[in-house]
Design brief:
Largest sheet: 3 strands, antiparallel
Mean pLDDT: 79
Helix content: 25-40%
Structural class: alpha+beta
Radius of gyration: 21 Å
Low-confidence stretches: 1-19
């Protein structure tokens, strides 16, 4: 994901702490101004009180832990990624990123035991 977002599914916590996808929940949230557009053309706003940037109606959704556990169980059943994405209701791109993240956490050491020689 080249947008600067963390690689945790659809979590909309960007690496830049000033930018958020949801409006601030402070009393100053009524004082917002337009602040350009994001990469796909959606309007970006800025809170004049706290300086946070946000998008009014973000389309990214957070994948909850229950869904992640279900995906883990389905992966163990060796079901295709397209089938898992269809049944669970996540995008194939999110699922591939999730599988890659899981794979990267697996240690890559090979346990080799020496064979007995001779008889």
């Amino acid at each position: 994901m080249s947008m600067g977002y963390k690689q945790f599914g659809y979590v909309t916590e960007p690496l830049n702490p000033v930018f958020r996808s949801t409006p601030p929940q402070t009393p100053s949230s009524a004082h917002t101004v337009k602040n350009g557009r994001i990469h796909n053309g959606k309007q970006r706003f800025k809170c004049q009180g706290c300086g946070r940037q946000f998008i009014e109606q973000p389309t990214k959704k957070v994948i909850d832990q229950i869904t992640r556990d279900l995906v883990d169980r389905l992966l163990l059943e060796r079901i295709s990624l397209a089938g898992i994405a269809r049944v669970v209701g996540v995008s194939e791109q999110w699922l591939q990123d999730y599988v890659n993240e899981k794979y990267a956490k697996v240690p890559r050491r090979v346990q080799v035991t020496p064979k007995k020689r001779g008889g």
